[in-house]
Amino acid sequence: MASDNNRNRRVKTADTVFGIIESIQALDGAGVTELSEELGLAKSTIHDHLSTMVEKEYLVKNGQTYQLGLKFLNHGIHARDSLDLLPTVQPNLKQMANETGEIAWFLVEEYGRGVYLSKAKGDRAVQPYGKIGNRVDLHSIAAGKAILAHLPEDEVRTIIEKHGLESQTSETITDTDQLFEELESIRQSGVAFNDGESLAGHRAVASPICPNDRLIGAIVVSGPKNRIQGDMFTEKIPEIVSGTANAIELELTAR
């Protein structure tokens, strides 16, 4: 019984630590009182954890406000680089951005959500949302749907059960059957579209990266609807994106 109690305390402590870290990031810095109210924990408990994380150099204290320290950056870069994908993906991403003039992203899936790993900007690029490291729902973005289309059906259903199909705009797919119909179309064409599903007035075209039939992520070009329209949306950008995806797959296969 004592062993179980100790284990539960350790798990609760870990939950508290990560809750503090995530709250500090969401609030863009916070003090003891603010974190106590946010997490519903005693100020003394919050203070003890904050002091430990400052001592370990994971947090920086400015006056009465705590901010995330740059030590997290080292861990994030290590996690990204351990995938060993960017040396191949990034040059192709830059070329795709230059060809289209828009912004290009590389996205991977982790725990049922999309994570932006890399980007490249063309000379007309607009970045309405998204940052490196941001985690996003898969069902409402082109790259996310390209990834979902190449996951096993039971895994997709598990993701839907866990994260839902939240509406971002009036165009977001929120019906499971409709989503699966679109995923089948994406598998057939090799291209996924986002026509105002995540942000009104925004369009995107994506293709999966599947060297040797192994899904590693997706690349996408996005931009304002007034520029990405007609043949540019239905033919030219899809051809560029799918061609770039194929080039990346060949390079990864040849390594």
From TrEMBL:
User: Which branch of life, at top level?
Assistant: Archaea
Spell out the PANTHER family in the cross-references: HELIX-TURN-HELIX TRANSCRIPTIONAL REGULATOR, ICLR FAMILY, HTH-TYPE TRANSCRIPTIONAL REGULATOR RV1719
Give the record's keywords alphabetically. DNA-binding, Transcription, Transcription regulation
What region holds the IclR-ED domain? 71-254
Name of the featured protein: IclR family transcriptional regulator
User: Pfam families, from UniProt?
Assistant: HTH_IclR, IclR_C
Q: Which GO BP annotation is one of this protein's?
A: negative regulation of DNA-templated transcription
* Boundaries of every HTH iclR-type domain copy: 11-70
The organism encoding this protein is Natrinema ejinorense
Q: Which GO terms describe its molecular function?
A: DNA binding; DNA-binding transcription factor activity
